[in-house]
Amino acid sequence: MSKINLDSLVLYDNIRQDGIVQAAVKIVNEFDYHEYISYMEAEYYLVQRELLSATDHLDINGTYWQNYICRLIAESENRFSLMSEKGKSDGNIRAIAVREMGELKKLYAIDWERIGSVFGDGGVSVCCLRQERGLESQAGHRDKIRLALEADTNEKTADKLIGYYGEYGCGIFERYHAFLWDGMLVGVRHYDKITFDRIIGYDRQKNALIENTEFFLKGYPANNVLLYGDRGTGKSSSVKALLNKFKDSKLKLISLNKNNVDDLYKIIESVAGRGCKFIIFIDDLSFDDTEIGYKHFKSVIEGGVEAQPSNVLIYVTSNRRNLIKETWKDRAGDSGEVHSNDGMQERLSLADRFGLCITYTAPGKEEFLHIVKGIAKQENLEIDENLLVEEALKWDARQKGRSGRVARQFINHIHAKVLNGGLGS
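Predicted structure:
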């Protein structure tokens, strides 16, 4: 093993400052000087504890230590990774990156078995641990970073990382596909895995949404979208299904609560210019007639001083076509405004700011039964179809309205009854 110089890392400063890496390099460099380093036992086991705490799963076909180094490289936001994410190139930055690849490859290739033998750890070093089963199947796209670090030249390593960042992004946008806004972007690791084939019916609506999103991902002109209609019909599920359909296209979904709609500019500013595509998703949006927040929202999605960047779209779901609560007083022109019609038109114009409006209506009886049968098939529910229809109609009679949500709730109920032996097949 040769000495590792963390001070030479200019681009990958996050690795230079990482506590686990610093402790490991201290051990390696002392070992390089002389192999009698038993006095560093405390530092050695500190690395083991910290690494075990930091590793909850493996993303590569390698050891815990190699997995950790690949993670740090994947999540590094620096001039090299950010430019690569956007598909841009700079010979000077690439030259710096090539130089730093040598130190990164030394880090990746630390011989922990040899070091561990000094401390008599019995060959059980956390740094050397691997997943016991399904190693190949568990490896994710970060395994490409492992392959880059194992390339025979620093130039090849750098070029492979350029390709990696260009395909998957870097930093928090490499690590997560979905986000919540809570004054800052918060990554969501376990997001809804709903897919379009689980949303029965509404093919025209789904196709329109998919087509607009495909245009967006290809860099073509695309529209902000308003999905409106009856509750429980699949509006929100359709938007979330986009993430699962296109997540390998650097599509990111940012969920924004209606109460934080004033933060739209902050969100847009934080993602503008990145190499990923972002859909800002506002679910169940509506404004009372006394709220003025709609004016701010309207200025953001069209007509504001700051243009909406080409890598950002806004998708909104609502039960109201016009988003703003309209009263009979508004209809009668008795709102107190001198030009009440002008005020009403201003409020109603909000929906017009969306280039694409998609309507989701409640299903009729036959369509509801079609949805029920489709979900039952997906769930492999073993029940006679006539009995299923009979029970579905009883369930429908007790509900306040038909929808895909109601159909799925019915299937959950009837599935439990079948498992409990309450219904025959």
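Summary: The CA atoms of residues 362 and 389 lie 18 Å apart.
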